[in-house]
Write a structure and sequence with these properties.
Strand order of the largest sheet: 2-1-5-6-7-4-3
Oligomer: single chain
Number of helices: 2
Distance between the termini: 35 Å
Order of helices and strands: EEEEHEEEHEE
Largest sheet: 7 strands, antiparallel
Amino acid sequence: MANEMLQGKHKILLFRKLSDQASEAAKLVFQTEHTFSYSRELERIVTKDGGVIQVGDLESEVSIEAIQAKDDPVGQMLRQSVIDGEKLELWEVTVDPDLKGEDDKFPAIYAQGYLDSWEDPASAEENATISSNFTVEMEPQFGQATLTSEQQQAVQYAFMDTTSVTTTTTTSSTTTTTTQA
């Protein structure tokens, strides 16, 4: 496994309103590309002893590109968060089976911030797209993130056998059991 390339398709973005932490983070559908960038302003100060560098604060942002879905509640929530100036949480999760920990968690970057733009380009010859930019407040945090089975299925469906699938749901205890016959 040493020196294997990491595929960009294994890195996904999940979002949630900071004010809605009682709900699970959700994936924007049809993500095509994103870039997590870090930068610092460096100022060269000329002194009589030679040049020295003054290091500024870390600035981070995430540019986001996706194809518009006809009815994606996450896309609608993100667009509205720009309009309302609402603070969001963002996770970049690396959903690579080789990197999955023993505790079923994946490597992730967590950040809080705001979408500072939202564009809906619509070309006559291409799919309608979404373009946005997430500005990180303070510094991103690195750790491990849990993905629910629903979130993992949103990334890629799992192999299913050819036998029938039965689902049992108990509403009083909020227990869902799926078995494959």
